[in-house]
Amino acid sequence: MAEAEQLKSNPLDHYPELQLFIAGEWVSKGDRKSEDVLNPATEEVLGQLPHATEADMDRALKAAEEGFKVWRDKLPEERSAVLRKAAELMRKRAEQITTVASLESGKPIVQSRMELKMSSAVLEWYAEEGRRAYGRVLAQRQPGSRMYVVKEPIGPVAAFAPWNFPQGNPARKMGASLGAGCSCVFKPAEDTPATALLMAKCIQDAGLPDGVLSVLFGVPHIVSTYLLNSPIIRKMSFTGSIPVGKSLMKLAADKMIRTTMELGGHAPVLVFEDADVEAVLEMAVVAKYRNGGQVCVSPTRFLVHESLFEKFVKGFTARTKEILVGNPLDENSKMGPLIHSRRLDAISALVDDAVTEGATLNTGGSTIDGPGFFYQPTVLSNVPHSARIMQEEPFGPVAIINSFSDYNEVITEANRLPYGLAAFAFTDSAKRVKLLGEQLEAGMIGINSFAISVPESPFGGIKESGHGSEEGIEGLEACMVTKLISEV
User: Fold this and answer.
1) Pair (353, 475) in one structural domain
2) What is the mean pLDDT of residues 366-380?
3) 288-311: per-residue pLDDT in tens?
4) Max CA pair span of the chain
5) Does residue 461 fall inside a structural domain?
6) Which of 66, 296, 393, 470 is catalytic?
7) H or E segment at 153?
8) Domain match, 276 and 258 both
């Protein structure tokens, strides 16, 4: 039987043993503390995840220190070859990786396959861009002198990733650090550990020297505090919530560790009176409920011109009701469960509060009976500012639709919150397109499109949504230092 057919018939048989990866060795649970990893669609236990001890973390840090010396001295072409090979292995092992990713995260299998294509492309991007970390030669100030600028890897990186993109987030974290010539101590999310481990295995099998990459798990604040208190770590990359990000930045500041912070958002979507409503609706509903809305750049606040408002609400609601919510391994499922019961509680509280404050509930608004952490795709309209969901990122399958009448009014509303990760707008006006690019306060802006992330583009926010970027040349340079050398 082919691998794909085996995975479909017995997906749990292909869930790997959960281990730590330290200094090139796979470390089993032993007598370490551990936690259950659940399938969010069934609430069944997938495996026991070991927590790293202090000795494990010390070993990973020491390995990163020594591994950095080895990896830094490899020729860029040699480092590139490892990452290219890792991307190739990911594609060869795609069925297992994507099946495991869907089991752990609840993401529909079709979306997991799309994520693998993007993630392997990210590794390839860093493989090639790492060969082009150019410096420059400055003009002479006197005969016989020379001043030049070089880019060098910053050193060991501590990277922390969330669960919502169990392939994409590891690809960004590991790809940037390894592509730049750095070593990496990586802590993926405890909710989706096996996916990251399978990716690390691809990198190991591609020829990465032992010690350059370690993968640890544990109580998040314990692991992050321990790593960031080490003098070995020179760079931190974090993707997650704003409160946790601020806490980690304070820890990093004590040792002047450079940070890249990709934090939360509350993306506005501006739909102007000249937009093609049907075209926007076809894109918007898919974008909103991708991964159950558990996406940092998920479109959340739809601000629709009053002349289109009723039509937009009606069309959005009708399409939302058609979304098939179900088993993420079912090829026909368009939305799976939320990641855990805490997300169910959080979404329920926000929706109930909005309705209490006077919002109109057009569809959804409750959990789905049965096992698993399923919540109905939900549409709220005419939501007052007094509702918590107008201030707090919902991070779930809830769309907010409000109307506007004036350009300046909608720009003010779009920029009102302290978040600035992503923003979107739809219009046929060329002049308005230029103004929107200038006036919307976000690190990524999609105009007439929700596609704002490709490997060669910078991914990051402004204001309280963080600083720095992943992907693109910016993601590579975040793991490098600039050095001036003056010769006479």
Assistant:
1) no
2) 96
3) 999 999 999 999 999 999 999 999
4) 80
5) no
6) 296
7) strand 146-153
8) no
In degrees rounded to 5, what are phi and psi of residue 79?
-65, -40
First to last CA, the chain: 69
The yes-or-no answer on residue 262 being catalytic is yes
CA pair distance 399, 375, nearest whole angstrom: 13
Q: Is 227 in the same domain as 320?
A: no
Q: Is residue 460 part of a domain?
A: no
Q: How far apart are the C-alpha atoms of 1 and 8, rounded to whole Å?
A: 11
pLDDT at residue 178, rounded to an integer = 98
Pair 90, 97: CB distance under 8 Å = yes
What radius of gyration do the chain's Cα atoms show? Answer: 23
Q: What is the spatial distance between Cα 85 and Cα 83, in angstroms, rounded to a whole number?
A: 5
- 378 burial (CB, 10 Å; 0-12 / 13-18 / 19+) is buried
Q: How many CB atoms lie within 10 A of CB 409?
A: 11
Burial of 430 (0-12, 13-18, 19+ CB in 10 A): exposed
Residue 120 and residue 245 in one domain: yes
- Same domain for 353 and 290: yes
Residue 18, in any domain of the structure: yes
CA distance 355 to 128: 51
**Does 421 fall in a domain?**
yes
Q: Which domain holds residue 359?
A: 267-455
Mean pLDDT, to the nearest integer, of 420-427?
Answer: 98
Measured CA to CA in angstroms, residue 275 lies from 302, 304, 427, 436 at distances of 13, 10, 5, 14
55 in the same domain as 25: yes
- Would you state the structure tokens that stand for residue 150, as one six-digit string? 């070089």
Q: What is the DSSP letter of 7?
A: H
Do residues 204 and 226 share a domain?
yes
Alpha-carbon span 292 to 488, nearest angstrom: 61
Residues 271 and 259 in one domain: no
The yes-or-no verdict on residue 1 having pLDDT over 50 is: no
Side by side, which strands form the sheet with 235-239?
25-27, 20-22, 213-215, 184-187, 157-160, 235-239, 258-262, 466-467
Total tally of structural domains belonging to the chain: 2
- Residue 52 CA to residue 480 CA, distance in Å, equals 28
Q: State residue 180 phi and psi, 5-degree precision.
A: -80, -10
* Ramachandran bin of 144, using left for φ above 0, alpha for ψ from -120 to 50, beta for the remaining angles: left
Catalytic residue among 115, 124, 262, 393: 262
Please give the Cα distance from 191 to 161 (Å, whole number). Answer: 11
Q: 250 to each of 123, 225, 241, 253, 463, how far by Cα in Å?
A: 30, 10, 15, 5, 17
Task: Tell me the per-residue pLDDT of 211-239, one tens digit each, with 9 for 90 and over.
Answer: 999 999 999 999 999 999 999 999 999 99
Question: Alpha-carbon distance 235 to 260, whole Å?
Answer: 8
C-alpha span between 412 and 414 (Å, rounded): 6
Q: How far apart are CA 317 and CA 338, in angstroms?
A: 20
Domain CATH code at residue 222: 3.40.605.10
